[in-house]
Amino acid sequence: MNSAAPDRERQPQAVGGGNVDRPAAKARLRAACRGGLRLALGSALLLGLCPGLVAAEGLSLSNDHAGGNLLKADQAFRLVAAERQGQSLRISWDIAPGYYLYRKRISVQVLAPAGARLGAPELPKGEVVHDEYQGSAEIYHGSLQAALRWPADSAPPRRLRVGYQGCAEAGVCYPPQSRQIDVIDLPQ
Q: Which is higher by pLDDT, 110 or 42?
């Protein structure tokens, strides 16, 4: 494909050869990707997959996407630490420039010890934006710290499952992420 050719002259190839009916393909792709995945309408089809999924794995998109490459999810949304000090726990992310996390997609679950419980994450106020698929959404840029507490009758958490989802400002969202992380004890 000639990267210098205007978008209107490009014809994505269907898997197995042949041209794709571009408007119909975009409509099908948009419908298939509504479950939390956003994409720039100019992104090319690659192997018949959602460009957001392809990009989230660190593969290159066509020149329809400014910049051509996206970071892998772990680079875009780096889960830094889960630190416990006294009765409080702090989970931190470093969010790469040009990326953001959704507030309503952040979740925390205790994996160990059995029976341990946590309260809901306390999050700072984020930036409110209107998102085509999420509606009104609160997002975070740069860095994020979530504070959590656990009931006095519960054992302190030692291992967590942290869920989150974010997007590149270029118009591509990553699938929901889930990571297991050990809690680090800080001196009091």
A: 110
